[in-house]
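Inverse folding, one chain.
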């Protein structure tokens, strides 16, 4: 900050560039997905084959995602820790003779 309380122009430019970069980074994938959905929907309206194909591809994609999710959960559940974990159990005690 300058003595007058106004931010330096360079930091203002950096802030504006960061906002623009963030917007572009988030907007491009969203636009690509939405345009892909629009293309498939318009082709499905014209051609009946594309309609069934898009349904089959959607079911295949969801099934594949579910399979990957289950494999990841099972792999994480079966992992063994790298080190021994102390549970704070007491040691064995000797009994007094009767």
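Residues assigned per position:
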């Amino acid at each position: 900050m300058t003595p007058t309380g106004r931010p330096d122009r360079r930091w203002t430019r950096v802030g504006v560039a960061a906002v623009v970069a963030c917007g572009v980074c988030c907007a491009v994938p969203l636009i690509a997905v939405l345009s892909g959905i629009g293309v498939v929907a318009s082709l499905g309206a014209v051609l009946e084959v594309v309609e069934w194909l898009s349904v089959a591809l959607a079911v295949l994609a969801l099934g594949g995602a579910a399979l990957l999710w289950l494999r990841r959960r099972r792999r994480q559940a079966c992992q063994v820790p790298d080190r021994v974990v102390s549970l704070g159990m007491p040691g064995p005690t000797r009994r007094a003779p009767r």
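The mean pLDDT is 82. The two ends are 83 Å apart (CA to CA).
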